[in-house]
Amino acid sequence: MDEVEPQSFPLPYEDEIEPSETFDDDANDLDEGTVIGTKTYTNTNVYQQPLIDPYEKISPRMKVNKTERLEKQAPVEFNKIFKEDRPPMISDIEDQPDLDNSRDEWKTIQKKIDSEYEKKLKEVSDDAMKKLKAFQTEHKALLEKTQFLLDQSQIRSRSGSRARDEDNRSAVARDDRNRFFSPQVKKTVSAREVARESPTGQGSDALLIRQLHQEYQDVLLLGKNMVGEIYLVDILAKLHFIDGDVSNEKAR
Amino acid sequence: MDKSKQNILVKSDLEQFKGDHDDISKNLFKITCAILNLSVNQRGHNFLEENLLNTYLDSINHSRDDHDLILINQLATIKNLINRPTYSLSDK
Known about the structure:
The structure holds two protein chains of two kinds.
Chain A: H1 23-29, H2 54-57, H3 60-72, H4 90-95, H5 98-176, H6 191-197, H7 204-222, E1 229-231, H8 232-238, H9 244-251
Helix pairs in contact in A: 5-6
Chain B: E1 9-12, H1 22-35, H2 50-58, H3 67-82
């Protein structure tokens, strides 16, 4: 591969550089009034620029354009223009007496709009608060209902087995009631013996007696005829002490 | 059976019978407890004795062919038991 030699480009300001410039040349370049060596500069303000026309540095084409532009455009006199032809100015507005009235009207309208907006905002917030309260009460009621149902289900599950035992015992007792009116009086198993055999037999006599007494009182109260009387046969039939076949015959 | 002599009045709302049948209704409850072999150990020893009940039960003749007669006999037994004074249910 051939090595490519770096191409050198001439700098635009190379010709302006004077490599052979000496201190004497520098001294000649200084402005008038300056002192070389021990002498001091008279112009102490180093930031002061010489008074130069800025347009001199601009290209001649631009100079022409500027002059042409200045010649063509006449200076605008705003006071001579009609108000209708120019945009409104603050001085024009402030001088009008009717504008104060319109300002007051606008303020009143603005106040009305603000008050209506506040009213609507308040109504919306009131509605939202009402809905929130209703939701809270509904939620609370639902919670209470759920808790109640939960408690009820727990109570039912706890007392379920106990109630089943009691039902079985009372069913056996009811079946055993008609033994007095059957030939197998002394052979049948009594409710008391069933209660004794059950694991929760202690105190079951009192419970059975209480249930029987409640049933007996209900029959005495509700089993009366039109005159308000109740007889022995009616009580025995309603307490299921009479055999089913016999009671059916009685009904016939 | 409703028109039988054994079918006695147990309770009535009529003024003339009010209070007269309290002993009967109490005794009937005790009889029902005795039929179910439930001893009412309340208010002292005021319960129907087993022997007394067995005596009454023995008087019932179950060997009869007529079921109505057996039933009437049973009703008569209960009637005799409940017609006794309240505190005379025990022979002790």
